[in-house]
Every structure is written in structure tokens, then in C-alpha cells.
Amino acid sequence: MGAQVEPLGEKEIEERLAELPGWSVEDDRLHRGYHFPGHLPAAVMVMHIARIQEELDHHADLTLGYNRLTVAVNTHSIGGKVTDLDFGLARRIEEIAGAHGAH
After folding, report:
1. Chain mean position to CA 63
2. Which side of the chain, N or C, has fewer Cβ within a 10 Å radius?
3. DSSP string of 54-95, one letter each residue
């Protein structure tokens, strides 16, 4: 990666969360749960997120249930803190979530 990644402060995190309804920070991880109309849309969403993660070279923990998907991410390289990289991934996920019927 290029520039040094720094953990975000509490105020910076609050400002970025205001732009991402449904997301929160729990235990130093940016977190969101999605609900889908069935299993297949949830599973397809996992594949689309995987592609985004590969493109960004930044990966979240994804937990797939029957019609639910939980996303949790932080930046391991700086000791598991929330950074701009995590919010960048969250924004990309939000861009595709509606197309999969997520809410």
C-alpha cells in the first residue's frame, strides 16, 4: 500500500458513520447486518463483496446465514483499528446492497 494508514479518531468515525446509515462500530470493527428476501440473494451478495475486496486488497469478515449477511471489518495491519480503508470498503458494499434486495 502507498501512504501510511492511520486509525481514525472517535470524531472522525462518527462523521463517517453519519454518511453510512445502518453501519456501526463495535469492538473496534466497522459492522453492518443485512437482511435479504432469501438465501440466494444473500449468497450472491457475498460473491460481489468478494470481488470488491480483491479489487481493494482489503477484506472483511462475512458471516452468511439463510437470508442474512453480517459484515465486520477493521485494518489488521495497524493493530485491528478502524481506518479510511474500512469506510471505503463499506461505501462500496452499500453501493451494491440495494441491487441484491438487501435492507
Report:
1. 12
2. N
3. HHHT---EEEE-SSEEEEEE-BGGGTSB--HHHHHHHHHHHH
What is the rounded CA–CA span in Å between residue 7 and residue 58?
15
Q: Is residue 97 left, alpha or beta, with left meaning phi > 0 and alpha meaning psi from -120 to 50?
A: alpha
* Tens digits of residue pLDDT in 22-73: 999 999 999 999 999 999 999 999 999 999 999 999 999 999 999 999 999 9
Q: Which residue spans within 17-67 are E strands per DSSP?
A: 24-26, 29-35, 61-64
Residue 100 CB-density burial (10 A; 0-12 exposed, 13-18 middle, 19+ buried): buried
